[in-house]
Amino acid sequence: MNAHSLFLTALRPFEAARRLAVADGERLHGHGFEARIFAAAASCPGDFPGDETRALGAILDEAVAPLDYALVNELIGAPDDARIAEWLLERAASAQPHAIVLRSAPDRGAVVEPGKHPLAWRRFRFESAHRLPSVPRGHKCGRMHGHGFEAVIHARVDAGQDAWRTQDRIAEAWQPVHEQIHFACLNDLPGLDNPTSEVLARWLWQNLTDVLPGLTGISVLETASAGCHYDGRTWRIWKAMSFDSAVRLARAPQGDPRRLLHGHTFTTRLHLAGGLDEVMGWVHDYGDVKQRFDPLFRELDHQPLHQKAGLEDNDPAAIARHIEARMAAELPGLSRIDVLEKPGHGALLLRGGSTRGLLVP
Ligand SMILES: Nc1nc2c(c(=O)[nH]1)N=C([C@H](O)[C@H](O)COP(=O)(O)OP(=O)(O)OP(=O)(O)O)CN2
Q: Quick check: 3 pLDDT over 80?
């Protein structure tokens, strides 16, 4: 376990107005923003073991509070997404954040990490058919089918530039690609005869890298629960599964409601990193990840976790460790286990300690 690192994440929505000097003038407008923080578990001690995610959420809440129902320009100059995220990074300094991810609208936002260039991101949807020709006979993905795919594209914000300009550059670069893949059968496109998420992510990279300087990563979300991230060199795939469980935090002090029996709809995302199997065109079949997780899923779903041997602590970090111990041998390439107890709040256990790709999508 020594080489592993444990991160926590918390999320806080806020409503705010801002004026931005965008291409067509400086207009007052409003957003339903969402700020997400990532920090090493060691830097956000809680009041008791298992309280760390709440403690991180409290730091983020305090950081965000002045922006909620406010005019952002009164606090931050030229408040594009990256500058707001940088401001929050400073205000949440007590958690020594690894990063802040800001979403100003469902399809755009920025990522800031201390000492690094901010990134801007855009999210796009395309409606496409495909079939995977190499899967074994009877595999459902061998049939012609389709998805409402999504892609999330990250690119570096140039020094001194506004993040919205990078977001616009991403959209401009995306448009010609979108015209090829939206309302199309992916298998018909040159280079996409085996259009897995991984092959599609690489194909998008090849099509975007020359026209989008500063491109850092492409995520392809094939379904709501499965997707992959490609950074031009390596892939990371994930499969998400939800389980509904009864829990109690036995180490919470008397009077804390979390000491009482309660419950959560947990989401776990199992990530696998590696190269492509050149025949299958994938790192590992999403369906197989789900299948291998199934025995453990049955032990967690609709179960009282506080009574489960080896799972005396029921907080997301403890559950992530439990999943890691059970799944590491089952899934070679398992690189990360996320356990969220509600959307945006939970633990991320990185196997091997590398934080590459921690923040996306
Ligand atoms: N590593 C990959 N595995 C799979 C890919 C892929 O592109 N890369 N593609 C498929 C299929 O196209 C399939 O439609 C999506 O997979 P899956 O997550 O298994 O499908 P569901 O969302 O329908 O799964 P649930 O059972 O509903 O969770 C297969 N594998």
A: no
CATH of the domain at 53: 3.30.479.10
| Residues 6 and 110 occupy one common structural domain | yes
- Out of 94, 116, 138, a domain closes at 116
Q: Report whether residue 274 contacts ligand 1, using a CB cutoff of 6 Å.
A: no
Domain count, the chain: 3
Are residues 212 and 243 located together in one domain of the fold?
A: no
Give me the pLDDT at residue 352, please.
Answer: 77
pLDDT for residue 230 is more than 90: yes
Instruction: Quote the pTM value.
Output: 0.95
Quote the ipTM score: 0.96
Whose CA is closest to atom 13 on ligand 1? 141
225 C-alpha to ligand 1 centroid (Å): 9
Position 1 scores a pLDDT of 39
First-last CA distance in the chain: 25
Distances (CA, A) of 307 to 74, 76, 146, 313: 51, 49, 42, 10
Question: From the alpha carbon of 139, which atom of ligand 1 is closest?
Answer: 29
Q: Give a yes or no: residue 361 inside a domain.
A: no
Q: Are residues 109 and 140 in the same domain?
A: no
- Which residue among 185, 216, 233 closes a domain? 233
Is there an atom of ligand 1 within 6 Å of 286 CB?
A: yes
Whether residue 197 has its Cβ less than 6 Å from ligand 1: yes
Range of the domain at 132: 123-233
Q: Which positions ≥6 away from 5 have C-beta within 8 Å?
A: 40, 349, 350, 353, 355
How remote is the CA of residue 156 from the centroid of ligand 1, in Å? 30
Distance CA 124, CA 106 (A): 10
237 lines ligand 1 (CB under 6 A): yes
pLDDT for residue 21:
83
Band (45; pLDDT cuts 50, 70, 90):
confident
Distance 292 CA to ligand 1 centre (A): 14
